[in-house]
Specification:
With about 220 residues, this protein is mostly helical. About 75% of the residues lie in helices and about 0% in strands. The chain has a two-stranded antiparallel sheet. The termini are far apart.
């Protein structure tokens, strides 16, 4: 049964997965282009600052992968009003786990692509003293962030479209608020408290913030 679910979800998402895998493979290589072979020890801080802008694309790509896989897992059931799922001779919770497991396994595709791209980038890049490459750590963090996004969007997508809209809208508001606090240095105590509980450990979205970089000290 799991093989059938995995195959159908692969058919539904293979084109987006290919695009995500190519983007995940290319992103570390783009980061490597920021490195200069003749950089000295005192240039390390400037190089890290130049990588911060690119670092924002890693969690964004992980969240996008989770969203696409979660939405695709339930799209056919929503169109068929869950008639097929309810007609299967297995408990509802078992069917849900099959859907989630298949989506999680497909998430490995962009994660491996990022790992391979990071390994190549780390191999061909000459780093200044004090900087090191962390291809495996970056790929594992990407996989974990993608799985968190997948489980979040999977639970949201399982409900009605209206419920999904409310939840996604609330998440969007929090993301915009977090960006606004950083850009405009806003001092709103209630908002800062909410964002702190969400984005700072042990908050559920802590993995999406902080420094994302293939190269670090």
């Amino acid at each position: 049964m799991f093989k059938a679910v995995l195959y159908t979800q692969w058919k539904w998402t293979r084109l987006p997965l290919l695009i995500l895998a190519l983007a995940a493979f290319a992103l570390p290589l783009v980061s490597a282009r920021q490195m200069t072979p003749d950089a000295e020890y005192w240039d390390a801080q400037g190089l890290l600052q130049s990588l911060e802008a690119l670092g924002a694309f890693y969690p964004l790509l992980a969240a996008t992968a989770g969203l696409i896989l979660a939405a695709a897992a339930w799209a056919a059931d929503h169109r068929g009003r869950h008639v097929y799922a309810l007609s299967l001779p297995l408990p509802r919770w078992h069917y849900v786990l099959l859907r989630l497991g298949a989506a999680a396994l497909l998430l490995v595709v962009p994660a491996i692509a990022m790992w391979l791209g990071a390994l190549i980038a780390a191999t061909v890049t000459t780093l200044p003293p004090g900087l090191h490459a962390y291809p495996t750590t970056l790929a594992l963090r990407f996989a974990l962030a993608g799985f968190i996004a997948l489980t979040l969007f999977f639970a949201v997508s399982a409900g009605t479209s209206r419920t999904a809209g409310y939840v996604l809208g609330a998440i969007g508001v929090l993301v915009v608020a977090q960006i606004a606090v950083g850009l405009f240095d806003l001092k709103l105590q209630i908002l800062e408290t909410i964002l702190y509980q969400i984005y700072i450990w042990p908050g559920p979205l802590e993995i999406f913030v902080g420094r994302w970089s293939l190269f670090d000290v």
